[in-house]
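Archive transcription. Copying these from loose printouts into the bound notebook so they stop getting lost. Printout 1 of 2:
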Amino acid sequence: MALKKSEKDSVVAEVAELFSTSKMTVIAQFQGTTVKALQTLRKDAKQNGTKVKVVKNRLVIKAIQQNDTLKGADVSTLQGMLLYAFNSNDEVAAATDLNNFAKKNPTIQFIGGISAEGLFVDAANIKALAGLPSKNQLIAETIAMLLSPVHDITNALSGNLHALLDGVADAKAA
């Protein structure tokens, strides 16, 4: 069913808004993927703050041209049946969500991505991004690394105190 001009304008406005707030937009082909699988992808990705949309490329190009930052982005690869994954919280989450889904559904293939700065990122770099830990996981690992010396000192001191108390208890018993 064809969209009316007003409906197309609202889709372009929505996609332009998603591009302006997204830290990284990942683009993938989905030809051969079932509607049920796409619904599962949308549901799973939503948990990480990723919004997955299937929009005509012509409308996406109009949305990109409306954004001052993205005007210079390479749109020559936007051909065929594509889906767009937007995430405004995390640069890596959209790539990770699509990569996890692609492991079970090989019909999903990365085309690339568009960064918040308007740079086109190729498919190989998007796959590399998808392999990175999430932002929260990196923060947790950094905190654990910073707290490691504190835990080591605490463990060393508590170990010596236990040995000292055992020694004192043995001396009293003798």
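Printout 2 of 2:
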Amino acid sequence: MDISVVVPLYNEEESLIELHQWIESSLSDANYSFELIFIDDGSSDNSWEIINDLSIKNQNINGYRFAKNYGKSQALNAGFQYAKGKYIATLDADLQDSPEELPSMINMLNEEKLDLVSGWKKTRHDSLFLKNIPSKLFNFAARIVSGIKLHDFNCGIKVYKKNVVKTIDVSGEMHRYIPVLASQAGFKRISEKEVKHQIRKYGVTKFGAERFINGFLDLLTLWFLNQFGKRPMHFFGLLGTFMFIIGISFILYLGIDKLYFNINSRLITDRPQFFIALVTIIIGVQFFISGFIGELLLRQRKNQKNYIISEITSSEGN
């Protein structure tokens, strides 16, 4: 098996047959053997019925249906788990990503000995203010934080070597940062290829403006996990120590001042420095407790799926 094409989808019934034909034509013309993996993320339309019909007619098509809508990250993670090809490709189901780009991306992967090739939608057919400008800001921030020189981190069309997707864990809403996850796992050979962005033919986008806010928050999470994920006490302990130093410093100041300089002055508990010392020491203790809890969770964490498969297409089930 040369290529596994993973397609996460949610309510894309209008585009699935055309997408299947487009993928089959593009990869067959390039003489690649392939499998097509549809991950139905709890669609409420007829997407699953269409996938099941396609899989009955073509044994190279496998479908997996989530019990509910878990999100694109969980759909990709499931697809990566079931993929069997030497190379793994991802496409969005809305026909805005062209499967015709995949053969050249695979060639680039081999010729330049890369781990991952990400698409770059240099020219986008989206709203300027709702998508284009926020996307540029988002990608600029991702480049600064991650150090990876990509123009489009969240492009749906990507090609990976098999060991990359079998190593990384895509959870939460981290599908935007798969190149960052791959780099953190040790797969540093990452590049991009300019791809065509098609005008959306059917339906509407399933993502709202809140995805950009969530994206920036996820980026901060990735940065923190990369820096301190394996040693949370180093982060929380440092902050706790800093708070303790401030608190102890004020306590020493109040004690020395009361014993040697202002013996008959007002009570220590009436002075604002006392409350500063008290608050900073309490905060320091909380930071240390957070660090200890983080270390305990890190040691007890077990691998578990973040989704439930409710149905599998007939061809895969047999």
